[in-house]
Amino acid sequence: PEMQVLCAVLQGGKKNTSSTAGMQQSLQTSPLMPKRIATTVSERMRTVSEAIKARDFYTFAQIAMNESDDLQAICATTQPQIQYATEDSYAMIRLVKTYNAKKGHPTLAYTFDAGANCFLFVLEKDLPEAVAMLMQHFPTPSERFYFHDAMLLQKIQEA
């Protein structure tokens, strides 16, 4: 299976807390960081490396989303609290979870940069349907889309 990556720029502009400052704050104040540093990161790195080698999208997707959710939890428990996600970020998370539940397995996975922008992972075979669903829920003028595959818009319309 060939994995594709989409980027949904949900909010441009400068963040209130830089990534570097946010990481330092989190390391010093979030009660979730000690366990994460001690065990979670190394376990997930090992598991995701194995998933990538085995081309196991389901495991990869679950770890990516768990990591993203953990980042949100760390930000929420940092003092003072860090808020990178926006309402659109949370709407994207809900949409992906609902879509995957309807599919019965992870078909689309999300992760976020240290900001509101969402990166989505999907297998090439599922790309047209996933993009069509995203366009339906996050209407955007077509001139603001960029696809490396010029035929993708046609495939989306057929999905």
Automatic annotation (TrEMBL):
One CC-aspect GO term: cytosol
GO annotation terms (biological process): isopentenyl diphosphate biosynthetic process, mevalonate pathway
Pfam families per the UniProt record, alphabetical: MDD_C
Entries under Gene3D superfamilies matching the protein: GHMP kinase, C-terminal domain (3.30.70.890)
Source domain of life: Eukaryota
Domain Mvd1 C-terminal: 5-144
GO molecular function term, any single one: diphosphomevalonate decarboxylase activity
Official protein name in the record: Diphosphomevalonate decarboxylase
